[in-house]
Amino acid sequence: MITNLHIKNIGIIEDIEINFNEGLNVLTGETGAGKSLIINALNIICGDRFSKEMIRKGENQSYVEICLYEPENENSLDGNIIASREINSNGRNMCKINGRMVTVNELKDFMKKLIEIHGQNDSQNLLDNKEHLKYLDGYIGGKIKELKEEYKKYYTNYLQVKKELKENYGDDKERQRKVDLLKYQFNEIEVANLKNKEDEELESKQKLIINSEKIANTLNEVDTSIGENAIDLISNAIRQIEKIENIDQKYQECTNSLKSVYYEMQEISRDISNYKDDIYFDENEQKQIEERLDLIYDLKRKYGNSIQEILDYKNEVKEEIYRIENMEEYTNNLKVKQQELIDKLNEIGMKIHNLREIEAKKLSNKINENLQDLEMKNAKINIHVNLIEDFLESGKDRVEFFISTNIGEDEKELIKIASGGEMSRIMLAIKTVLAGSDSIPVLIFDEIDTGISGKAANKVAEKLSKISQSHQVLCISHLPAIAAIADYNYFINKQIENERTITIIKKLEENEIIREIARISSGEVNEITLNYARELRCKKMAS
Question: What is the pLDDT of residue 186?
């Protein structure tokens, strides 16, 4: 749910913060006070287009920040989500989600899973056939979920097989050219007779050969220092201290230590002598190593970053040569596999279709019942589930909502017949039916009550109240029935400060709510309208 909305420098809004709550939040106020600007701000944070003319006069930027609490959202921090959008007069946007910079499209994709806005001119979802399918499947729920998951598994394999069949290496000449190239690559690697990590061993040998002269000179110096100097000096020291080792224990220990050093030095001297014997410089071997390494580096440049990658590529080439040379057999096997997948997709797709057809009638009836309540007594929604030849990710159906608004008229696509007010009530009817299965946590209705009154107004209020039991609902309204049913009421007003008009918003206390209901019921606050407001509010309290 939305916990806080912060708006700066949009139209007459200078700087306001609104704390919202669970349930039904209703915003009322006089015309021109800034109600539509709040909806504009919500559209902006949801990734809609923004005109720089909306920036408050004299300011260089506008800013909208929204805080939401959604504990089950994977992008939340301890359940909290903070999204912001800053728009400068030069057109530059800065969007963030929990402090991370995102693009406007990323912000839009993220927010559309959390907030849905509906108004007189904002019912695009209802006009999008893809959304019609989502509405129906959302209503069906778990009964269709497993079927769709099974279908999607086969659908993914089907797309892969279809792609492989399409990429069949072209005509005979093209296939032959491809085979010739692959065989050349295979033979080049095969002839090289590579061994894994061979390059590391060769580089080590090359390093020794290149530095052989330096190593030899150094070892000779060390051998002379140890063998002709150090060992002789230690030997002489041992002979001298042996003359007094019987006088005191400590001299005996010193003798033993010197002997240990003497033996260690002899061992080191022998090792160095062996190292000297191992040193050699063979110009031919150096040349062979360099040529071998050049060959390996050349193959790495062409086929992989390591010998193992080159060998892996050789195996891939071998398999591809086999596929091309046995294209007919390979293609036939793919076609058999494709047909098996088609049969399975048709089987599961038909189960999905039959289920959708049955449930579409139930959903149509429930929506129509709600339309009756909303004083659209002659309107009838009919959800068409048309089976198509193509395979789609969600099955083989094209789902579309049709409507007939008057008795005796043919039904037509929703987009071609319904007015703005009718669209709002149709959306409200659908949302009422789908309240339990709709995954969007926040629903915003912008003056969807325009043009209705009486019983229809009361029914709209009831529907909004019902939806608010499973969603957070924000509603801008002029109807006293809706204001009376609200869990929380907010009053939007404008005032003059420092010769500038600014919007202010206030959460109303109970006595203020009564006065506001009275005001919007007739435009005047008097004892008659106050009594009417109290009566409306009592119905809310009683429920």
Answer: 94
- Per the CB < 8 A criterion, the answer to whether 91 and 72 are in contact is no
Of 132, 150, 2, 137, nearest to 65 by C-alpha is 2
Per residue in 2-52, pLDDT (tens digit) is 999 999 999 889 899 999 999 999 999 888 888 888 988 999 999 888 878
CA 207/CA 211 separation, integer angstroms: 6
Structure tokens at 161: 């097989």
Residues 343-367 as b/e (b if ≥16 CB within 10 A, e otherwise) read: ebbeebbeebbebbeebbeebbebb
Instruction: Return phi, psi of residue 153, to 5°.
Output: -60, -45
**Contact assessment for residue 533 and residue 500, using Cβ atoms and an 8 Å cutoff:** no
**Domain ranges for the chain:** 2-114+440-542, 173-325
Is the CB of residue 150 less than 8 Å from the CB of residue 104? no
Number of other residues whose CB lies within 10 A of the CB of residue 147: 16
Of the pLDDT bands very low, low, confident and very high (cuts 50, 70, 90), residue 312 is very high
Q: Is 146 exposed, middle or buried (0-12, 13-18, 19+ CB in 10 A)?
A: exposed
pTM: 0.63
Kindly state the helix (H) or strand (E) to which residue 345 belongs, with its residue range. Answer: helix 327-373
C-alpha 425/C-alpha 421 separation (Å) is 6
HSE-CB for 334 with a 13 A CA cutoff? 19
CA 333 – CA 323 distance, rounded (Å): 11
Edge to edge, the sheet with strand 2-10 lists 13-19, 2-10, 61-69, 80-88, 93-97, 100-102
Is the CB of residue 81 less than 8 Å from the CB of residue 71?
no
**Domain 2-114+440-542's class?**
alpha beta
* Phi, psi of 394, rounded to the nearest 5 degrees: -100, 5
